[in-house]
Amino acid sequence: MKKSDFNILRFLAFFIVLIEGFYIYVGIISIGGRLYIPFLARYFNFPYWLTVAVAKSSVLFLELLGYSVHQANAVNISINGATGVTIAWPCLGVAPISLWIGFVAAHRYKAAYKIKWIIAGVCIIFLVNVLRIAVITLSNYHKWFYLEHFNAHTSFNILAYAIILLLMFVFIKNFNYKKNTEALHT
After folding, report:
1. Which among 29, 41, 15 is positioned nearest to 100, based on CA atoms?
2. Torsions phi, psi of 70, nearest 5?
3. Given the DSSP bridges, would you call strands 69-70 and 85-86 parallel, antiparallel or unpaired?
4. Which of 20, 29, 62, 179 is 20 to 30 Å from 109 at the Cα level?
5. 85 has which bridge partners?
6. What is the enclosing helix (H) or strand (E) of 57?
7. Helix axes 111-142, 152-184, angle to 10 degrees
């Protein structure tokens, strides 16, 4: 029997370990958490670093558009005193990123090829998240009525998963092409 190129158990393992591991880690680095470890919170707080990266990237994008952006703190963004956006850990796109990494890692192919695709997908999801934060900030500043009742988290997830489906399609097409090309040359 021929082995499949995709291992569903490996996919589920990667996805669950990544997403649950992230939230367990957040619990470990959060003051008041049952397993709070100050050393990790101070020196290895990568969820905070990711949050700041999303915030700073959104600020840069808005400033490139010509807006005067204010940050009350490292994870808050507002334009000229309008209602701001505070980026929390659930806003980081960890679930879509975990899904993408799990999907690519579950394929039987060379590590370098998979790493390239993982990095590309994570960067695309990150950029979509930055644009989402910028649009929410703009909607608060311009008082766009239709975005006042807009669920940014759910809408981002829908868009991110749609992009992941497109990436999956492109990945599989490219994966099959590379596999068939290598089979012809062996």
Report:
1. 15
2. -120, 140
3. unpaired
4. 20
5. 77
6. helix 46-64
7. 160
The secondary element (H helix, E strand) that includes residue 39 is helix 38-43
Domain segments of the chain as ranges: 8-184
* Cα distance between residue 99 and residue 83, in whole Å: 32
Confirm if 172 and 114 have CB atoms less than 8 A apart. no
176 against 10, higher pLDDT:
10
Tens digits of per-residue pLDDT, 48-98? 999 999 999 999 999 999 999 999 999 999 998 888 899 998 889 999 999
Is pLDDT larger for residue 33 or for residue 170?
Answer: 170
Gap between the Cα atoms of 92 and 49, Å rounded: 11
* Predicted structure pTM score: 0.89
Long-range (24+ apart) CB contacts under 8 A made by 62-69 are 62/134, 62/137, 62/138, 65/134, 67/138, 67/141, 69/137
Both structure tokens of 102: 């799990």
